[in-house]
């Protein structure tokens, strides 16, 4: 996930899922972005998609629920729960999703229903923080934030991290966050920015860098993940290395604490996404709480130094 577009979210999601599938793990890729780029990147014709992930989320989650109605088998071990533009209507007030009492837990409920059929699940989020992204974080155990090694991307990474931390704190369960350097071009400036990214977010930064490969764009244009389009290429090696690292790391259960009162802008934003309230016209200045929890490791506190635009809610 990342609120910034063009940072490689969908490319990352598709190729991580494809690498897992190639390793023999039953993998589900869930597209929560109404732009439906996962389907395009995997050669699934959008006009043939009869039911999308939104339909599955608002359906009756019982043992009679037929997953095959909603999933496409892309390759061996790889299934896609596709999106369409109609998914965007679920974030509108009065939608079928908004009317459900567990509207922020519907994806989690759905994936629990399908869990026995898959070993790994990758979720591609839309480039905004709303009810769809909130559902994704509720269902997830880990969040990967692709950050392009460019000046503006790194400049906005701190705000992005704080916003995600606020949502995680509101959810109330530990979700490990990883920063993934992406679309990296081997220039002196990019190397300097990569070093700053590693210094600013260590130890959360993945040791693997996803380089800017023309092969990735070519693979997407042919509707294939890079493991199928260009096996043994540098692009495939980047994603294989990333997946190997994700499997090897000892995932801690970090707790990021946020003051629950509306004096914290990020926390108030997260609360309003969860409770479907309209945003206030303004927020008081943020304050920092000194309280800590002792039952779980605390990796940081949120102290937003920048205003967060909540007009989209």
Q: Round the Cα radius of gyration to an integer and report it.
A: 19 Å
- What is the average of the pLDDT values? 81
Total strands: the figure is 8
Question: What is the fold-level CATH name, i.e. the topology?
Answer: Rossmann fold
| Largest sheet features | 4 strands, mixed
Query: What's the CATH H-level superfamily name?
Result: P-loop containing nucleotide triphosphate hydrolases
How does the overall form come out from the CA principal axes?
globular
- Give the helix proportion (percent range): 25-40%
Element string (H = helix, E = strand): HEHHEEHEHEHEHHHHEHE
Strand order in the sheet with the most strands? 2-3-1-4
Please report which band the strand proportion falls in: under 5%, 5-15%, 15-25%, 25-35%, 35-45% or over 45%. 5-15%
Q: Nutshell version of this structure?
A:
By secondary structure, the protein is of the alpha/beta class.
Topology at a glance:
Elements: H1 9-22, E1 27-31, H2 37-41, H3 53-58, E2 72-75, E3 78-81, H4 106-114, E4 120-124, H5 131-139, E5 142-148, H6 151-171, E6 176-182, H7 188-201, H8 214-221, H9 226-229, H10 234-248, E7 255-257, H11 265-275, E8 298-301
Parallel strand pairs: 1-3, 1-4, 5-6, 7-8
Antiparallel strand pairs: 2-3
Helix pairs in contact: 1-10, 4-5, 6-11
Written account of the structure:
It is a single chain. The chain has 313 residues and is an alpha/beta fold. It has one domain: 3-Layer(aba) Sandwich (Rossmann fold). It is built from eleven helices and eight strands. The strands form three sheets. Strands 2-3-1-4 form a four-stranded mixed β-sheet. Strands 5-6 form a two-stranded parallel ribbon. The protein has a two-stranded parallel sheet with strand order 7-8. Strand 5 (142-148), helix 6 and strand 6 (176-182) form a beta-alpha-beta unit. The two termini are 18 Å apart.
């Amino acid at each position: 996930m990342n609120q910034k577009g063009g940072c490689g979210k969908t490319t990352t999601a598709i190729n991580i899922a494809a690498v897992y599938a190639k390793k023999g793990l039953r993998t589900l890729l869930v597209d929560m972005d109404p732009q439906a780029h996962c389907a395009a990147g995997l050669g699934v014709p959008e006009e043939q998609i009869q039911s999308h992930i939104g339909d599955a989320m608002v359906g009756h989650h019982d043992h009679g629920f037929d997953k095959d109605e909603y999933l496409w088998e892309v390759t061996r071990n790889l299934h896609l729960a596709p999106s369409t533009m109609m998914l965007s209507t679920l974030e509108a007030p009065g939608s079928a999703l908004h009317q459900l009492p567990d509207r922020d837990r519907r994806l989690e409920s759905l994936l629990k229903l399908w869990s026995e059929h898959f070993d790994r699940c990758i979720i591609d989020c839309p480039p905004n923080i709303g009810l769809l992204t909130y559902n994704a974080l509720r269902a997830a155990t880990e969040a990967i934030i692709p950050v392009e090694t460019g000046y503006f991307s790194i400049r906005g990474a701190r705000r992005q991290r704080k916003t995600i931390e606020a949502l995680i704190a509101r959810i109330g369960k530990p979700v490990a966050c990883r920063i993934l350097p992406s679309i990296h071009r081997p220039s002196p400036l990019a190397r300097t920015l990569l070093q700053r990214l590693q210094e600013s977010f260590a130890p959360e930064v993945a040791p693997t860098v996803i380089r800017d490969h023309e092969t990735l764009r070519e693979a997407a244009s042919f509707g294939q993940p890079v493991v199928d389009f260009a096996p043994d290429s540098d692009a495939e090696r980047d994603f294989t290395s990333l997946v190997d690292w994700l499997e090897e790391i000892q995932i801690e259960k970090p707790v990021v604490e946020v003051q629950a009162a509306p004096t914290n802008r990020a926390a108030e934003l997260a609360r309003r996404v969860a409770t479907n309230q309209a945003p206030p016209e303004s927020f008081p200045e943020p304050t920092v709480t000194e309280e800590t929890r002792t039952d779980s490791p605390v990796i940081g506190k949120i102290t937003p130094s920048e205003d967060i635009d909540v007009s989209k809610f």
